[in-house]
Amino acid sequence: MRVGMLTGGGDCPGLNPVIRAVCRRLWENGHETFGVLNGWRGAIDHNLKPLGWDETSGILHKGGTIIGTSRTNVYKNEGGVEAVKKLFGDHIDALVAIGGEDTLGVASRLSAEEGLPVVGVPKTIDNDLNGTDYTFGFDTAVYVATEAIDRVHSTAESHNRAIVVETMGRHAGWIALFSGIAGGADYILIPEVEVNYDDVAAAVERRKQRGKNFSVIVASEGAELPGFADEGEVDEFGHVRVENRAVGETVAQEVEKRTGMQTRATVLGYIQRGGTPTPRDRMLGLRFGLKAADLVNEGKWGRMAALHGDDVVSVPLTEATAELKLVPRDWYETAKTFFG
Ligand code: F6P
């Protein structure tokens, strides 16, 4: 078989290990492998390149994706579905789609509605995909964010400031939550929980009363700010740019107003997403890649590799894309034990 693979949506540490593993396992079974370049864009344009030993060696530790990515939505491009149907038969016989809710949402529809031979691999630093306990990329993002929080602590303490660290996570607060707990944040703001500036300020004040004249607050870029309405352009999947909320800066100003303390904000942004994956993300990427190749070998279309406990299993793509995996309330309660 000629098996294509594509990576869609925001890039993510661990994508290259997936590609490497898919190829290695498929070659064992005599299949040919191709990169469909730049996500669904390449599937519409039939832009492919063969993936052999030369292309896939030395990529395990590299961040990003060697086959490029985009936020193209097949269903929002005229003739998109027809073009992708033609890709099958003309160029490939099966496809491994590696992506988050958007990319896999398209994969799920193409499989369910068009009967195309597609399997999925879940990817996102945000860890908000349903059907799997964790996605690769998340561990790297949390590692980077935790290191940043550690660094911010010492400068906050030296200057007697409250510093807000803004993490990625537009719909779900997993990165803020995990890095905030691991980094000992004095308050954590996530999209799932209403923002209350007075509460944040109270935590900072409590610390002052205990002689700690500095605080570190971790805020997810997707936190819903009171009175703020998103506007502006949306992408092909209907997402607004949450950066426009300026969550870090806004929270810093509101805390300063209420406490009189000098505040600063720092946005971690793409640093969380770029660069080399942690060993854990490499392992998860490799294991997902092997599973996806096995699904192709077994003709189990419409399924996605997933982590359940310590086991890599497969679940229907429809389950993974039906809803987002948000931070449950009890996780946030765990974090609150350590506030202020
Ligand atoms: O892929 C997830 C993510 O990193 C979100 O955390 C973030 O809001 C978004 O992508 C940024 O998207 P873009 O790369 O289009 O700026």
How would you sum up this structure, described in words?
The chain is an alpha/beta fold and 340 residues long. The protein contains twelve helices and eleven strands. It has helices at residues 15-28, 40-45, 53-56, 80-90, 101-114, 138-159, 174-182, 197-209, 247-259, 279-297, 317-322, 329-336; strands spanning 2-7, 32-36, 48-50, 94-99, 118-122, 162-167, 187-189, 215-220, 263-267, 303-308, 311-316. A five-stranded mixed sheet has the order 3-2-1-4-5, with helices on both faces. A four-stranded parallel sheet has the order 7-8-6-9, with helices on both faces. It has a two-stranded antiparallel sheet with strand order 10-11. Strand 1 (2-7), helix 1 and strand 2 (32-36) form a beta-alpha-beta unit. The longest helix has 22 residues, at 138-159. It is elongated and about 70 Å long. The mean pLDDT is 97. It binds 6-O-phosphono-beta-D-fructofuranose. 6-O-phosphono-beta-D-fructofuranose (F6P) binds next to loops.
Give a quick precis of the structure.
41% of the residues lie in helices and 17% in strands. The chain is α/β, with parallel strands linked by helices and 340 residues long. The chain folds into 2 domains: 2-136 and 275-320, Rossmann fold (3-Layer(aba) Sandwich), CATH 3.40.50; 139-272, Phosphofructokinase domain (Rossmann fold).
